[in-house]
Backbone:
């Protein structure tokens, strides 16, 4: 019985050893994938910031263009009013 117990113990130790090796290998793979994911996340954050900056600039330019168009329309309107009053 002692030899059977010894053999089972050796088998359990071998299984534990191989399980530990597998766990270490999987941990390394997981670490690599997490590093790759972190790098992609950093790229994504940078791209999102770029898009946000472009949207902000687009909004500013749109408002500036609208302001110029409104100013131009007002100038034409005042010129037209002045012309109507002047020729009456």
Residues:
């Amino acid at each position: 019985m002692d030899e059977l117990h010894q053999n089972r113990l050796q088998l359990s130790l071998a299984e534990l050893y191989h399980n530990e090796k597998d766990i270490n290998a999987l941990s390394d793979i997981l670490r690599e994938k997490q590093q790759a994911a972190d790098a992609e996340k950093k790229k994504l954050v940078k791209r999102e910031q770029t898009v946000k900056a472009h949207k902000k600039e687009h909004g500013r330019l749109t408002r500036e263009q609208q302001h110029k168009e409104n100013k131009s329309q007002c100038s034409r309107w005042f010129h037209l009013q002045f012309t109507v009053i002047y020729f009456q």
DSSP finds one helix and no strands in the chain. The chain has a mean pLDDT of 89.
